[in-house]
Here is the input.
Amino acid sequence: MTGASSGIGWHLARLLARQGVRLVVNARRSDRLTELAETISGEGGTCLTYPGDITQPEVRRGLLEQCTGELGGVDILINNAGIGAMGRFEEADEQRMRQIFEVNFFAVAEMTRIAIPALKQGEDPLVVNISSVLGHRAAPLKSEYCASKFALHGLSDSLRAELAPVGIELLLVSPSTTDSDFFDHSIEDTTGKDWKKGGAMSAEKVAAKTVRGMTKRRHEIILTFGGRIIVWLDRLLPGIANKLVARFGQ
Ligand SMILES: NC(=O)c1ccc[n+]([C@@H]2O[C@H](COP(=O)([O-])OP(=O)(O)OC[C@H]3O[C@@H](n4cnc5c(N)ncnc54)[C@H](OP(=O)(O)O)[C@@H]3O)[C@@H](O)[C@H]2O)c1
Here is the structure.
C-alpha cells in the first residue's frame, strides 16, 4: 500500500492488519511508517515498511520486490498516495500540474503495471485506487488535482475491464473532503480558504468504508451522500451542476 504514513492510508493499514492482511507500506516519511509498523505489530499484525518517493521507478520496483520476496506475493495493491494544490490555474506554472500528475496518476499507473504479473498469481487479486469525488465532478481552484483524479478514474475503468478476464478486480474509491493532513501537505495554496470548513469525514471512517467496499468486492464507491448527489446531478443535469459549482465552488 502506498501513502500509509498518515490519514486514510494509516487507518486503512491498521484496519486491514486487524483482519489478518500482511502488509508492506510505503510513503516518504520513514519515521511515520516505522511507528505504524510498530503499532500494527503490537496488535499482533504483520507490517513491513518500504520508505521512498513513489514517483521514482526504483522505489516502485523495490516495494514490489519486498512484497514478493518477504511475503511471497501480492493479493491486493492499494494506490492511496496523493497530493493536491489549491489556487487559480492561470497563476500556477506547469510544474504544479506535472508534480500532481506524477504522484496521483503516473505513479499509480506504473505501480499497477509492474504489479500485474504478481497479482495474476495472487489469491482473489484486487487493485484499490483511492480517487475522489473530484474525479467524477471537477471544481474550481483545484484544476490539477481534478484532472489527475479524472485521469485515474479513466485508467481505473479501462483496467477493470481489461483485467477482469485474468481474475483481477479493481475498486475505485471516491471520498469527499476528509479530515486528514491532506490540505497541510498540499504543494501550494494561494486561496486563503479553509478547505475543511463545512464538515469532513474522518480518515478512519473513510478507511472503514473502503475496507467494507473491498470485502463486498464492489467496483466503485462514492463515500458520502453529498458526493453521490453531486455526481448524479452532474450526470443528469450538467448545466445546473456547472452553475452551482461555479457559484459555490470558489
Ligand atoms: N483529504 C481529502 O479531503 C481527500 C478527499 C478525497 C480523496 N483524497 C485522497 O485520499 C488519498 C489519501 O489522502 P489523505 O487525505 O489521507 O492525505 P494525507 O494524510 O496527506 O496522505 C497522503 C499520503 O500520501 C503520501 N505521499 C504523498 N506523496 C508521496 C510520494 N511522492 N511518494 C510516496 N508517498 C507519498 C503521504 O506520505 P509522505 O508525505 O510521508 O510521503 C501520505 O502518506 C489521496 O489520494 C487523496 O487524493 C483525500
In short: The chain has one domain: 7-248.
